[in-house]
Amino acid sequence: MADELMLEIVTPEKMAFSGKIEEVTIPGSEGEFGVLRGHAALLSAIDVGELNFTKDGKKTYYAVNTGYTEVTTGKVTILVETAERADAIDKERAKKAKDNAEAKLSKLPKEDVEYELMRAALARAITRISVADKHA
Asked: The domain containing residue 117 runs over which residues?
């Protein structure tokens, strides 16, 4: 069974992806890391960022929000708040969200409770734009 690598990307709303892959690159909270067949078991927190995997020699990109991943023998399970495939991202909406977050951040003091929320919103918007560009 270690000859195969199964990937599941799960959000609270749906199973975003389920299938056999060759490799996956995950935006871990301590930095990006890759998983190939035969990888050692591990648990990791996931940060906002780009997740990509290779299936049949073709890369697929997702913009993901925070969550967790579990790697076991032959399987990677990714549980995240959101996962958007590159070709499903509304780039114009992401640009508006980025502009909105930047405008709000410029007016907020760093001590304000809303500052970190806007900083996280900006990171998500930038990631979505970057991932959408990979589809173009």
From this structure: 90-135
